[in-house]
Amino acid sequence: MQESPDNRVRVSVARLTLLLCLFFLISGGLGYPTLNRYDPRKVPGLSDVNAYSALVTGQTDVDVGHIRYRVLVPWIAKPFYRLALGRSATWDPVMVGLLAANSLFVAATAALIVLLGTRQFGSYTVSLVASLLYLVNFAVPNLRLAGLVDAGEGFFLLALLSSLCERQWWALPVIGVLGAMTKESFVPFSIAFTAAWWFTVRKESSSPVRNAAWILTSWVASIATMIGVQWWVGGSFVNPIHFAATLHGNHEYVQHFASSLWDRNFWYIFLWLLPTSIPNLKRFPKSWLIPVAATSVMVFVLDGYYGGAPDTVGRALFSVAGPPLSLSSAMLLLGISDRSPDNQSAFNQIAWH
Prior knowledge:
single chain, 2 strands
């Protein structure tokens, strides 16, 4: 690690690369049961894996519905599937491909947690513990590494925060394009996130108009990509408003909201994460907290409109809030909140080296 000219601690490229490889191997181990211990495609709560498997293999006899537009993860999985085909012994080659693709995104998310946490809070130790807490959360081995595409969406949402924090404006349209190719819900999530971020920092920003222009460009890029993918896959233009209308499937909003909060998968994810993260959230900048809160509200709005399975809320909320909550939880577990300023400075000096 090294100290940058602006006095923020940064993780070296070599160390970040090593962590990325390590996290990828850990992710592969966490998701190993999907290869020959159980088949996620036969689990009721993971029925969408059938559609993603069909996209990887090119099957045409499986009804994939609007999932056929979530092309990025299946595209990345396809080379791994072809490599494993006939060479993977008892491992299911389709699940090898999906596990490899999702492990890449999970590993990249964990590495980005280390990068962002170290830069923001000056402690490599806290950031590393946070990344490990992220990896062992129920949502990662049981959902992200089970053949779904939430790992990709979660990574691009965190990449969005990283680009905004680092003022890497050029990356916003790129993230918008890739995120829209991963899952259609990324588009409204990214709009809510970036809009909330801009309103939070606009008074302190030296060029709010330029920032807004880049953000608007990312919105246009993501929407255009969604339309383009639907046109390319379906062979015809799909009006975004009409597409959204076709997803409307819930009319019992209060009942659905209650069932989502009562769902056991939601509590498996947040039962320990929320209590351990809340005490230190005050240490986070508003430019993190407000966009995450706004996007979390959007999760409930979209879920109420769509009426998905009860576990949908937990999965989406973890994509939005999982990384910052993991960082806050790591602070509590390491006792950072109880340290005096002098001790905190000493702790950070140790962590830097």
